[in-house]
């Protein structure tokens, strides 16, 4: 293969009720990226460009998103998204990866870590959130005050994109800042990505986020939590709580960036991740034989 050319495989994994689209490229130690809610794998383009020459990169479109699109499942959950990730890693025989998830993707990584603390070399949780909303309350209480019916009605009346824009605006009003992204172009692109998501899928994705009951992680896996400086304060607080329970957890805050920290400040985010990756994979090297 010519120097600088990375082999790329785009394929679909058959599921019991649909398919899961993924892209695999590069060679080396496996690095897996899971995007945020109502987004797609293209959101990781700055990281794929940076790391594909050094690592084997796996990106995927979670159920309901991007090229995967709709599946026949009537209800989604973070647990089901994690089941899909488990199946994909097994099918591709990727062992001891570093998992990197943003927002919804960070929930999937947390769920995977809770199930398989010894099966990953490390975890990067960008825009890390433990629950939605980021005020953790018992599931019984959440069920009584679920906004899912109102979201479903909004989607039916206004569509997916308008509902997403309204949700973002409500959070912005509450936080008083550009929490999603400090870059207007990146905000526009994030909202535009929602155009690809139909109404039923939007509702199922929201329901999965809202119903998730996060584990209290205390695993010994090296874990990096990255937040943008303009991230919503309650989300930052969740990140600090998350790191406090992890023996090998660390948290970095990158200024002049929001929830989409990997896109707002790609160079700073990539440098932070590169340092962590070398450390995480170094710990997982097999002992040399005498």
TrEMBL record:
Pfam short name (any one): Abhydrolase_6
InterPro entries on file: AB_hydrolase_1, AB_hydrolase_fold, AB_hydrolase_sf
One GO cellular component term noted in the UniProt record for this chain: membrane
UniProt key word NADP: no
Keywords for this protein: Hydrolase
PANTHER family: AB HYDROLASE SUPERFAMILY PROTEIN YCLE, MONOACYLGLYCEROL LIPASE
Protein's UniProt name: Pimeloyl-ACP methyl ester carboxylesterase
Taxonomic classification: Archaea, Methanobacteriati, Methanobacteriota, Stenosarchaea group, Halobacteria
């Amino acid at each position: 293969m010519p120097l600088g050319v990375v082999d790329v495989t785009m394929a679909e994994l058959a599921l019991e009720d649909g398919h899961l689209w993924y892209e695999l490229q590069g060679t080396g130690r496996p690095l897996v990226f899971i995007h945020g809610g109502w987004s797609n794998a293209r959101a990781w383009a700055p990281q794929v460009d940076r790391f594909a020459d050094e690592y084997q990169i796996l990106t995927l479109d979670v159920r309901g998103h991007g090229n995967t699109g709709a599946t026949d499942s009537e209800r989604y959950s973070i647990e089901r998204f994690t089941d899909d990730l488990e199946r994909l890693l097994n099918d591709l025989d990727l062992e001891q990866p570093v998992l990197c998830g943003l927002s919804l993707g960070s929930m999937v990584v947390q769920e995977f870590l809770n199930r398989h603390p010894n099966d990953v070399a490390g975890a990067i949780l960008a825009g890390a959130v433990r629950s939605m909303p980021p005020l953790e309350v018992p599931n019984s209480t959440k069920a009584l005050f679920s906004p899912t019916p109102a979201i479903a009605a909004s989607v039916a009346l206004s569509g997916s994109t308008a509902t997403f824009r309204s949700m973002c605006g409500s959070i912005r009003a509450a936080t008083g800042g550009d929490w999603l992204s400090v870059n207007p172009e990146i905000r526009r692109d994030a909202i535009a990505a929602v155009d690809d998501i139909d109404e039923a899928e939007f509702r199922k994705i929201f329901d999965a986020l809202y119903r998730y009951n996060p584990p209290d992680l205390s695993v010994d896996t090296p874990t990096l939590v990255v937040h943008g400086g303009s991230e919503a304060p309650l989300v930052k607080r969740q990140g600090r709580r998350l790191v406090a329970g992890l023996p090998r957890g660390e948290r970095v805050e990158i200024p002049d960036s929001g929830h989409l920290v990997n896109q707002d400040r790609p160079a700073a985010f990539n440098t932070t991740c590169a340092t962590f990756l070398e450390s995480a994979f170094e710990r997982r090297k097999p002992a040399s034989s005498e």
